[in-house]
Specification:
Helix content is 23%, strand content 21%. It is of the alpha/beta class. The protein has a domain of 112 residues. It has an 8-stranded mixed sheet with strand order 1-2-5-6-7-8-9-10. The protein has a two-stranded antiparallel sheet with strand order 3-4. It has a two-stranded antiparallel sheet with strand order 11-12. The structure holds iron/sulfur cluster. Iron/sulfur cluster (SF4) binds next to helix 1.
């Protein structure tokens, strides 16, 4: 089973594992946790264990059944490089990705060290984009160096939820940066100058920049009662995609 996604930078989600555990400040209000618990209460197949890490081999072949080019976000409800996912299962996931070469797969992790160790001596399928979450300086920024070690066609950063000014980033060998604020009733604020600093660094380094959303706080620094989905920065939308993607979309 794969699902159409509302996430602005992808088309569908494919979750060959579900569930996770928190490891850094970006996880504090994890969307996947709340959703997994709701799906468990609704007795939805795959969520019998709630948010506990669960591998779902029955879903492995799902992308192979779809012929037309589709961009999949892999594991919107989990982290493929979670320590409880067996290495041979990750290998099976990438085997499917390599065989489903009519598609593009976006894999995002907070377990950047495990990802770079996994790919030591292995080739990354050319249709796999690999990314890391960069929510702050202490936990997020060091993941970028681990990502750089992996020889992926597209390396990307998901700077969401952006929790502080992350300073000067080393964008060498990075192809795409997505920035977004936190959503939900307990959303933490994001300042415009933090986002604009990243945008300017991307422009200088010729890295594609995608501004996903403001989240729970507006550009004016005022918290909204409901989810605020404004997407403009400096009066415009920023929907840049990495170069290899443009011909595919
Ligand atoms: S790594 Fe992602 S899925 Fe896992 S707890 Fe953190 S935010 Fe949630």
């Amino acid at each position: 089973m794969t699902t159409t996604s509302k996430i602005e930078w992808t088309e569908r989600t494919w979750n060959p594992t579900v569930g996770c555990s928190k490891m850094s400040p970006g996880c504090k209000h994890c969307y996947a946790e709340g959703m997994a618990l709701r799906l468990q209460a609704m007795k939805t197949s795959g969520y019998e264990n709630g948010f506990k890490l669960t591998v779902l081999p029955k879903r492995l072949e799902d992308p192979l059944k779809r012929r037309s080019h589709t961009t999949y976000f892999v594991n919107s409800m989990s982290d493929l490089f979670h320590e409880e996912v067996p290495t041979d299962y990750i290998e099976q996931v990438f085997d499917v990705i390599a065989r489903a070469n009519q598609h593009t797969f976006q894999i995002l992790t907070k377990r950047a060290d495990r990802m770079s160790a996994f790919f030591m001596g292995k080739k990354v399928p050319p249709n796999a984009w690999l990314g890391v979450s960069v929510e702050d300086r202490q936990y997020g920024v060091p993941r970028i160096d681990a990502l750089r070690k992996v020889n992926a066609a597209i390396r990307f950063l998901s700077v969401e939820p952006l929790l502080e000014n992350v300073g000067t980033l080393n964008l060498d060998c990075i192809h795409w940066v997505i920035v977004g604020g936190e959503s939900g009733p307990k959303a933490r604020p994001m300042k415009e100058e933090w986002v604009d600093s990243i945008r300017a660094q991307c422009e200088a380094a010729q890295v594609a920049f995608f501004f996903k959303q403001w989240g729970g706080w507006g550009a004016d620094g005022i918290k909204r009662a409901k989810r605020y989905n404004g997407r403009k920065l400096n009066g415009q939308t920023w929907d840049q995609m990495p170069v290899a993607a443009r011909s595919a979309w």
